[in-house]
Amino acid sequence: MTINNVSSSYLSTALLPAVRQAQSQLSTLETEAATGQYADLGLQLGGQSGYELSLRAQDDLLQTLTNANGIVSTNLSTAQTALSSILSSAQTAAGNLTQSSGSIGAGSTLQSLGQTNLQQLIALANTTAAGGYVFGGQNTQAAPLDDYYAQPSSTAKSAIDSAFQSYFGFSTSSASVGDITASQMQGFLSGPFAAQFESPNWGSYWSNASTTNASSQIAPDDVIETSTNANAPGFQQLAQGYAMLSEFGAVGLGSGAQEALRSAASSLINNGVASITTTQSQLGLVQAQVTQANSSMSDQMTLLQTELGRIDNVDPAQIATELTTLSTQLETAYQLTSQIHNLNLAQYLPA
Amino acid sequence: MTLSSAFNIIDTSFKAIATQSATIASNVANANTPGYSRQVANLGTTAYNGVTVYSVTREANAALAAQLNSTTSDSAAQTAISNGLATLAQTVSDSATSTSTTGSQQNGASPYAQLANFASAMATFEAQPASESAAQAAVAAASGVASSLNSGAQAVAQARTQADQQIGQAVSTVNSLLSQFTSINNSVVAGIAGGSDIGALQDQRDALVTQIAQQIGVTTTVNSNGSMSIFTDSGVPLFESTPSQLTFTASGTLGPNQSGSAVLVNGTPITGPSSNMPIQSGAIAGLAQLRDTIAPQYQAQLDQIAGNLMTAFQETDQSTTATGLPTLPGLFTTSGATTVPSSANWTGLANAITINPTTDPTQGGDAFLLRDGGISDTSNLNYTYNTTGQAGYTGRLQQLVSALAAPMSFSSDAGLATTDSISNYADTSVSWLQAAHQQASGNATYHSSLLTSAASALSNATGVNLDTELTNMLTIESSYTASAKLVTTVNDMLNTLVNAI
User: Fold this and answer.
1) What residues of chain A lie within 8 A of the CB of B465, using their CB?
2) Any CB–CB contact under 8 A between B393 and chain A?
3) Overall average pLDDT of the B320-345 stretch
4) Which of A108, B38, B54, B276 is the most buried (most CB within 10 A)?
């Protein structure tokens, strides 16, 4: 073993770097103990920083999508509720029409059945949620169906009136209405009248809705159609059935023509019920998809949070231990410095 | 042998003791002077059996001194790089995830985090395409992306400008140290020739070399006449009997297109790409690396992100009949831009990128243009994507969101992947910067502890131990007492002899 010279200057300052390092480490540890996270995450993670950030961003995006899905779900439930109301009214109406098949009910009953239901259909089709019309398709800012009973006459009503006039050569208020035969009535209803509810008349006179449904990103890389629109066949069929009752139920048709009217309306409303049910089940599928997306995103977020916690968070027990060790080390360093200071030959020489 | 010759011998002893005491006094006085080399009085016998101090030598250790100089240089270079990167890393420091006043999570200041915020805002807007507040939030988030690129680019410019100024200061420091060195070195040479005590001068000369090593890595050689020559660690002479002149022109503010000037030693560049003999260490080397390599590379990454953002959000002619209208900058643009710049012209784009004022409600714009298109030219309907004008239109938004994740091409000069999505590239860029920061910080810590141990090794080898000096003092004291006793005894003997006569 060699005994090297030790300079006094080194001996008295030897512990300084250690003390300085311990003190800077102490301040870092204090921050970490207080926040539970690394004091300088970027420095700690280095090249892993991007990974940490991307986890955070992914978590953030999933949270945003989950929040956005809340809006989609609200729209969908509102639409479902409205469709249910439309459906139950239509079923009741269909039932009433079937009951009245044996003895044809009073014309005014048919007329008011048609009008009430048509008004309700239009009101429900114009349901709003979160500031938009749920049956508007992409066109969420315009009421999907115009008010048929608006004053002065709506374009839809005028178009039907003029179709009647041109087909029969007289208006509905004419006395000749009673002479219309069942086959004539059938011809009108399935011909010019039905045309009012098909493209392009439907779009021109009845509906402002967009046939393109609104689509939303319900999960990363999953964009689906998340609405239906008032141009769906169910709406057209029901509107057609209700409108014919409302228009011609109480104009004084002969019994044959009246029966033709009732049976045409009844079959349309029954078709409408079937179509609305289909639409409902389609929306139900979308709802299920959204719920599914939410639950899988929630699982992913849990995983991401766990991983983020693993990366960002310090172990409190470890920090506490390190703090204790460090303060012991500092105390030792202080004591040693003072003792070394006294270890000096000058102290022991006689004065 | 006579009694009088004993007197003469004792006299030499007193002289030697005086010199030894002076040496010890000098050692004790300088015990805490950094860089002081302890002195040793070397004793020898004279022709008449007396004692003499034939030389006083310094306990120098050239190897350890060179080690100290090179670790000083390395530590200075790494510290300069580490400090610069710490400044840059501030701009991407995302450890603190805060929650904004509106309750949405904020991911920090890096371009990547801002892009993530923007993607979130776009997803919200897409779910409520008719909501004005969602539209404005998306535009505000886009503005956040642009300003994070701006502030990143500004930090780069600032770091480079600062490094440039520091190089200027370092160069004038070295020049002044070299002129001090010249005069001390001349004194040393003259002292050696004249045979005078040069220990203190040598200490000063060594201290100056260490100070120069702080700025530039150096190697030294000592010539036969005692003159020292200094070379940079790359071999360019800094001092050979006469000092070299270091020249440097500070650039003022360094923009993204400007490269700073090189440090010249007698006209030979020792930094930068034009140098055949670039210095490897010292503060100047670290600062030059920061200014010329590291910071410009980060600037290039930011420029690539900015350029690809402009490209991804550009608007094309939407008219059904091909009218051949040019492609225009969309949401992301630069002030007064009429075209999307080609990738060759992206330098400095990160400084200039901004959101199009036509979309910014605070500048009288319409945030819904983000959904509908027509941002570039509000008066030309051919750039409108939402041709039906319906409020629930999300086609363009979906296009833009997927553009952030679509693969784009990036320049290989920026040192990252050449094909990547904008979002991923920004993420990798953060990783790159933080990794460089971590590495530089680790290097700086490592080199600073090396420096501490090199300094202790040198201090132990050449420094003063007070206990040793005091022990020597005690020995000399005894020797003095004995000599004095001898003088008295010989004197008594002479007196006895005289009285006997």
Assistant:
1) 5-8, 11
2) yes
3) 85
4) B38
- Cβ–Cβ below 8 Å for A346 and B470: yes
Joined tokens for residue A65: 């999508």
Measured CA to CA, the distance from residue A55 to residue B152 in angstroms comes to: 22
pLDDT digits (tens, 9 = 90+) for A184-215: 999 999 989 999 998 888 988 899 888 888 88
Using a CB–CB cutoff of 8 Å, tell me whether B299 touches chain A. no
**Residues B495, B492: Cα–Cα separation, whole Å:** 5
Query: Which residue among A10, A71, A138 places its CB closest to the CB of B127?
Result: A71
Coil vs helix vs strand at B379: coil
Does the pLDDT value for residue B321 go beyond 70?
A: yes
Secondary structure element (H or E) that encloses residue B437, with its range: helix B422-462
Size of interface A-B (CB pairs under 8 A): 204
CA neighbor of A75 nearest in space, from A275, A222, A290, A278: A290
E-assigned strand segments in chain A: 128-129, 132-133, 215-219, 222-225
Can you give B128-158 as a three-state secondary structure string? CCCCHHHHHHHHHHHHHHHHHHHHHHHHHHH
Residues 6+ apart with CB under 8 A from B451: B68, B71, B72, B74, B75
In DSSP terms, which residues pair with A133 in a beta bridge? A128
The rounded distance, in Å, linking the Cα atoms of A56 and A41 is 13
- Structure tokens, B8: 């003469």
**Does the predicted TM-score (pTM) go above 0.90?**
no
The whole-angstrom separation of Cα B394 and Cα B206 is 74
User: Structural domain boundaries of chain B?
Assistant: 1-59+463-501, 73-93+106-172+250-447
Residue-wise pLDDT for A61-79, tens only, equals 899 889 889 988 998 999 9
Contact A178, A253 (CB under 8 A): yes
Q: How many CB atoms lie within 10 A of CB B474?
A: 12
Using a CB-CB cut-off of 8 Å, the residues of chain A touching B432 are 47, 50
Per CB-CB distance under 8 Å, the chain A contacts of B128 are 68, 71, 130-132
Residues B147 and B109: their CA atoms lie apart, in Å, by: 9
Q: Where are the alpha helices (DSSP H) in B104-215?
A: 111-127, 132-194, 199-215
Cis peptide before A316 (omega within 30 of 0): no
Tokens of A73: 């779900």
Query: For residues A284 and A289, what is the distance between their CA atoms, to the nearest angstrom?
Result: 9
CA neighbor of B397 nearest in space, from A127, A298, A149, A217: A217
Residue A325 DSSP SS3: helix
Q: Cβ–Cβ of A10/B463 closer than 8 Å?
A: yes
Angle at B407 between CA B403 and CA B413, to 5 degrees: 120
Q: Does the pLDDT value for residue B103 go beyond 50? A: no
- DSSP-assigned beta bridge partners for residue A132: A129
> Can you say whether the dihedral through the CA atoms of A16, A19, A25, A30 is positive or negative?
negative
Q: Which CATH architecture has domain A53-304?
A: Up-down Bundle (1.20)
Instruction: Tell me the C-alpha distance between A225 and A285, whole Å.
Output: 11
Distances (CA, A) of B213 to B201, B230, B246, B451: 18, 10, 14, 12
The nearest alpha carbon in chain B to A210 belongs to B390
Q: What is the mean pLDDT of chain A?
A: 87
- In the numeric block, the tokens 């500031």 are attached to A131
List, in sequence order, every residue forming a beta bridge with A101; answer none if it has no partner. Answer: none
